[in-house]
Design a protein that fits this description.
Strand content: 5-15%
Order of helices and strands: HHHHEEEEEHEHHEEH
Strand order of the largest sheet: 1-6
Number of helices: 8
Radius of gyration: 18 Å
Helix content: 40-55%
Distance between the termini: 47 Å
């Protein structure tokens, strides 16, 4: 009997792992695979979605064997999966700083889903790869924060075609929010210069990579 239960448990575990979105199994991603991952969790319902996200969470922000951070991608999904209760944006995960983006010139009113953004019906990741000087927030703590302070999305989001994603990406670059970003600035005790073109290519690739 014990052996039978063990076999059933292993089979269930394998099925659960096989069913996980490819966003968590492949280094490369695009706007469509992000939307597919979000819809995967929406379809599970809040309780099962939270349980699966917690199971995916790791103690390490970056997994060298995978070449990307599962925890970081959990943060992306949560930014779309949970909506604010009273219009005030939920905070982003405290994983560190995205060094390719001047966060100080990207206020929440312009970027309420940071480090994710929606343009038209397409969701894009603005940057990937955190730098950290201290200890990162645990992904399970961020999931709990979103569940407590947000509303779990019920309706599936649109999975963009390449054509739609390219159109929405072009609109994002022309948006007031994007134009308002200061890619270089200096003042008392600080100075920085970032590459807008490189940041844009990262976003554009999420549209162009859709098959």
């Amino acid at each position: 009997m014990i052996i039978r239960f063990a076999i059933l448990f292993l089979l269930a575990t394998q099925l659960c792992q096989a069913a996980s979105p490819k966003l968590f199994g492949e280094k490369s991603f695009d706007a469509a695979s992000l939307a597919e991952a979000v819809n995967h969790f929406i379809a599970l319902g809040e309780t099962n979605a939270v349980n699966e996200l917690n199971a995916l969470a790791s103690d390490n922000i970056y997994n060298p064997n995978l070449g990307f951070s599962i925890n970081e991608r959990i943060g992306w999904v949560c930014r779309v999966l949970f909506e604010p209760k009273e219009g005030k944006p939920l905070r982003p995960p405290m994983y560190g700083a995205l060094s390719q983006l001047p966060r100080n010139t990207m206020p929440d009113k312009n970027w309420p889903l940071y480090p994710v953004a929606i343009s038209g019906s397409t969701y894009f990741v603005l940057s990937e790869g955190y730098s950290l000087g201290g200890e990162a927030e645990k992904p399970k703590d961020y999931i709990a924060y979103c569940q407590m302070n947000g509303i779990f999305r019920k309706a599936l989001i649109k999975i963009p075609t390449k054509e739609q994603a390219l159109k929405d990406a072009a609109s994002l670059r022309k948006s007031e929010a994007w134009i308002a970003i200061k890619w270089q600035d200096s003042g008392l005790g600080f100075s920085y210069t970032l590459n807008e073109e490189s940041s844009w290519e990262f976003i554009q690739n999420q549209a162009e990579s859709i098959r």
